[in-house]
Design brief:
3 helices, 122 residues, 48% strand, seven-stranded mixed beta sheet, 25% helix, Nuclear Transport Factor 2, Chain: A, alpha+beta
Length: 122
């Protein structure tokens, strides 16, 4: 798949709430990078570990208030997708987050995902 095709598929799956299915677009040796200051690991290596981290994050949500997924912007083998989520998390309360998700594609799969956002209360 091309970068554009992967970006379009990722956005479509996220808009449908099919986040676990979206991980099928990732390479087995993918890297997931969170900003400093977030709970959990800042850098996660390997698809199985990334999926486990997603499940832990998703299981900590007690209520989703709203969310959005914007159109992808493509630049070479990278693409960026603006996303937002307003959710209440067990133990940390309600977070209304706006983020830029930047993905790098190699050999038809997402090789790296990096996330940039304002931290709640910062």
């Amino acid at each position: 798949m091309t970068t554009q095709e992967i970006a379009n598929k990722l956005v479509a799956l996220c808009k449908e709430g099919k986040y676990e299915e979206a991980y099928g677009l990732y390479a087995e040796d993918a890297v997931h990078v969170e900003m400093p200051g977030m709970p959990g690991d800042q850098v996660t290596h390997g698809l199985n570990n990334i999926i486990e981290g997603y499940k832990n994050w998703a299981n900590s949500i007690t209520e989703v208030h709203s969310g959005s997924v914007g159109a992808p912007v493509i630049m070479g083998d990278h693409f960026c997708v603006p996303m937002s989520s307003d959710a209440t998390f067990e133990g940390t309360g309600r977070w209304d987050m706006k983020e830029l998700c930047v993905y790098q594609v190699k050999d038809g799969k997402i090789a790296k995902a990096s996330f940039f956002y304002d931290l709640p209360g910062a």
